[in-house]
Design a protein that fits this description.
By secondary structure, this protein is an alpha+beta fold. The protein contains six helices and 13 strands. The protein has helices spanning 44-52, 56-76, 139-145, 148-155, 162-179, 244-258, and strands at 2-4, 11-13, 23-30, 87-88, 100-101, 106-113, 116-123, 127-133, 191-193, 202-205, 215-220, 226-233, 238-243. Bound molecules: coenzyme A. Coenzyme A binds at residues 62, 65, 90, 92-93, 95, 98-100, 109-112, 128, 130, 174, 178, 181-185.
């Protein structure tokens, strides 16, 4: 099936399948997808932040993540990207930052690190996603963010495998903390997750922020040199992998033909969002 790219008359593949109940769509892209025109897809706040980022690598990740998040969210809602209003409300201070809040019934999380960008989307199931480039870590950081049994398990790994082990722990914990909206306002050291080689699972969460609903944890394939994890609140999900790079490239193609970069790729099926 194909869908017309609105405003261009071009045929584009239907790149944004409708979300199904219990599904989590994972859209992967790269900092290399950061065409300067992606800035036009961001909202005012996103553009202002992009303009403040002086380091090209940080700016590329920001542009790619925000553009991809807005394109897939708008497509699910059958909206033009420019019409999409997304908020964030900080769980700590109530300020306009923190976990992104797309319109109902969608839930959204994104992460970027190194070269990778990932955007995760569900219907009604809160999620948190984290991707990290594997890199050496400071022992002081490990002492601060790992629980005692995690530090002990990391110490049993061969030295060459410890950066990957540490990052595996980190992505699992950050995904969990993002799924509840706490982020790093809650110390990752209060969470205890399974050892890097074991199936991902939250074993315990100490302190007052402990959520009442069960959390589900998944390791994701982030490609060479990167690790990633996803956490969901209250229900497991079926993961599907999607090509965010092609989606963003189709946006450029649409812009090249029309001079505009404001229309989303039209989904082909009606969105019913049944529960
Ligand atoms: C966001 C955070 C979890 C770490 O992220 P990171 O590894 O640097 O970056 P990632 O790429 O994985 O994720 C960033 C995205 O997470 C999301 N995010 C931010 N805060 C979040 C939260 N509390 N819960 C869930 N998601 C959050 C945003 O979409 C953010 O994207 P943006 O920076 O482009 O706006 C961490 O920086 C954090 O928790 N910061 C806020 C700490 C806080 O709450 N302080 C109190 C403020 S009053």
């Amino acid at each position: 099936m194909t869908a017309g790219v609105a405003g261009t008359g071009l045929a584009a593949p239907a790149l944004v399948p409708p979300l199904r109940p219990g599904q989590c769509q994972l859209w992967w892209a790269s900092a290399r997808d950061a065409h300067p025109r992606l800035r036009e897809l961001l909202d005012e706040g996103g553009r202002a932040r992009a303009d403040r980022l002086r380091k090209p690598a940080a700016r590329a990740l920001h542009l790619t993540a925000h553009a991809l998040a807005r394109v897939v969210t708008a497509a699910q809602l059958q909206l033009q990207t420019s019409m999409l209003r997304m908020q964030a409300v900080c769980k700590q201070c109530g300020g306009p930052h923190g976990k992104p809040q797309p319109p109902e019934p969608l839930r959204l999380s994104w992460s970027h690190s190194g070269e990778r960008v990932v955007v995760a989307l569900t219907l009604r199931i809160d999620i948190g996603v984290d991707v990290e480039r594997v890199a050496p870590y400071e022992q002081e950081t490990a002492d601060r963010v790992l629980a005692a049994p995690e530090r002990a398990a990391l110490a049993t790994l061969p030295e060459a495998g410890r950066p990957e082990g540490f990052v595996r722990y980190w992505t699992r914990k950050e995904a969990l903390l993002k799924s509840t909206g706490d982020g790093l306002a809650v110390s990752p050291g209060l969470l205890h997750v399974t050892a890097p080689a074991a199936a991902p699972r939250l074993l315990s969460w100490s302190g007052p922020a402990r959520p009442s609903l069960p959390l589900h944890l998944y390791d994701l394939d982030a490609g060479p040199g990167h690790l990633a994890a996803l956490a969901t609140v209250g229900a497991p999900v079926r993961l599907t992998r999607h090509d965010g790079s092609s989606l963003l490239a189709a946006q450029h193609a649409s812009a090249d033909a029309s001079g505009l970069l404001t229309d989303p790729i039209r989904p082909t099926a009606e969105r019913s969002f049944a529960s």
